[in-house]
Amino acid sequence: MNGSESAGSAIWVSSVGLDAEQLRAAVDSAVAQVPHEDVVVVGRHGEAETVGRASGVMVVDDDGASLSALLASSSAKAIIVLRWGTLAPGAVTEIEAFLRNNVGVDVIYGDSVTSNGAPLFRPLFSPIRLRSNDYLGPVVAIRIHVLKAIGGIDRHAARSHVLEVALRAHDAGSVISLLPVVIAREDLAFNDFSDTVEAQRAAVGRYLAAKGVDARIEEVAPFVRRIRYDVVGAPLVSIVIPTRGGSAVIAGGDRVLVVEAVRGIIERSTYRHLQFVIVADLDTPVAVIEELEVMCGDALRLIAWTDEFNFSAKMNRGVLAADGEYVVLLNDDVELVSPDWIETMVGLAQQDGVGIVGAMLYFEDSTLQHAGQVYVGAVAGHAAFGWPGGQNDSIMSLSVDHEVSGVTAACALMRRDLFLELGGFTLALPGNYNDVDLNMKVRTAGYSAVFSPWVRLYHFESKSRDPKILDSDLLTLQARWAGLMQVEMYSRML
Amino acid sequence: MVEAEHELALIDRVIGLEMQVEELRRLDRLDPASSLAQRESVAALKETFTWRAGRVITLPIRAARFARRVILR
């Protein structure tokens, strides 16, 4: 394709981190699907020259100038970048068909399998996740005119070109899409990737700085970063808790749920600009109210609930009474684990496009209760439900902030004005699925639901609790959202 | 407060009705990736033994329905 006519795709095979055998396999998988002249080995690492010569393909440096020259001379319609893996048979056909059938899509990435054949199913495009982990996989394709339109290759982004281009393309309004088909075999044996880890961290740092986002980047694991976003300003955060002042036996001791939940927040939260909005049933014991008044002082807003049970209506009343710019929707049967939970959630909520932020919730026995909601067949469940603490999936979903289909309202933060703009919780779902409906309203309004594994709470809900889902609840939910809740597209590995 | 709660409920009803209309119109509301995944999911379902067995078992019923439609036409 270099200078000559090409109707299809050029394949750029990155040699970073590959030994000669791996690189040869990658190049072979490419030349099996496009003409030799459309394949280029990028980077003269290791035995790249030897492999390139033996395979009859060009080898270029991976510096910005060389790649820009390669891009300028290309007559292909799209560039397929192949890194740390091989193309699956038929991958180029799948990629070109997807681009042809979806003219609005500019960049695509796809599913892969490990060398053992284990699937690596990737989520729908997730810009918040991308900052923490380049999850795009071994194969990323971009239309050449789009790459040129967004400014081509960044000369500062050696070893992190794909991540850098994806971040830049997203900000430029390009449409980045998952191709939910296995298009690669991934080689997870990391060789000589230490420079890549640092290059990716630097690329994210430059990206955030250019956007004016103040944040600290911490390495969690190779290629996995925690982004600690600084809270802009010091917004008041209202914590809205519905309660009837009930007690339960937790860890062998009797516990007044709402009192202990609030006490834990007051004692352990590092964020101080808080308001507590307690929506209490009339039969809430007076002693409970008095204890809350003593603990919260002026930060307490007490709302009486006089009607019959309706979780949605109670929460709506609480949010309406709240003064905060942000509201935390919180159950009373929780206990805070992460002192910086508010900073983490507000920091995420202040990022472009984020509508609602949820938390990692644990059962009393420290197994996972919630790591985001999953929607399949127009029914909702929880990702990673019952997993032991510390378990993760193969794309490190429980170590990165990431977009999800929805988050439980047992602990969720959103802007108060957005909550009101969307009509709050629907009264049509008084007990169950009201949070699913809220998440769907958030997402169809163009915002994302984001789960953070760094916001951790215990949720003392019984693992065997029967949520008593009524047929009418399900019908109400499905009447609105069935078409959008058939296949889970975010937590595909959980 | 009561007025504000009614206003909130009204906004929700409008959004809910809009979404119900979208559902009833059976428009493809999905992004390209979700749409493809859904088609693949249905295709995979149709490959299962359960689906095929069900098609065989219900064949007489489906044939009768088809015949009735042809006759009534």
From TrEMBL, chain A:
The keyword Glycosyltransferase does not apply. InterPro entries: Nucleotide-diphossugar_trans. Keywords: Transferase. One of its GO terms (molecular function) is transferase activity. This is Glycosyltransferase. It comes from Orlajensenia flava.
UniProtKB/TrEMBL annotation, chain B:
It comes from the Bacteria. This is Uncharacterized protein. It comes from Orlajensenia flava.
